[in-house]
Write a structure and sequence with these properties.
The longest helix has 20 residues, at about 90-109. This protein has helices at about 20-30, 30-45, 90-109; strands at about 55-60, 70. By secondary structure, the chain is mainly alpha-helical. The protein has two domains: about 1-75, no CATH class; about 80-109. The protein has a two-stranded antiparallel sheet with strand order 1-2.
């Protein structure tokens, strides 16, 4: 995989898309995805006015369940997929505020 299209490091080099790499990692190292999700969740805690679930503990595949899993703190409210927020002006404003906060933090780093 290369960020510079057309650059050959050696003869007969395979070109591998980012999507293929993501699929390979997700399939063969699912615990990496879970760890990065937990790290991202920890990073958000307390850095925005929006409640954020906190990772409590990672779980391993077992008891017939084939994937890593995690326990997180519970946030009261309505499950986002139960209602379509696409027509909600309040949701659009909240999403824009959240994203603006994140972009500002990235600039400060």
């Amino acid at each position: 995989m290369s960020d510079a299209p057309g650059v050959q490091l050696h003869a007969n080099q395979l070109t591998v898309s980012a999507e293929t790499v993501r699929a390979l990692v997700d399939e063969q190292f699912p615990e990496w995805r879970l760890e990065s999700e937990a790290a991202a969740a920890r990073e958000l805690v307390g850095r925005t006015r929006f409640p954020t679930p906190e990772p409590v503990a990672p779980g391993e595949p077992g008891a017939g369940y084939p994937l890593p899993w995690s326990v997180q703190t519970w946030l009261p409210g309505v499950v986002a997929t139960d209602e379509d927020p696409s027509a909600s002006v309040a949701f659009a404003h909240d999403l824009a505020e959240f994203r603006s906060e994140q972009l500002l933090r990235e600039e400060i780093r």
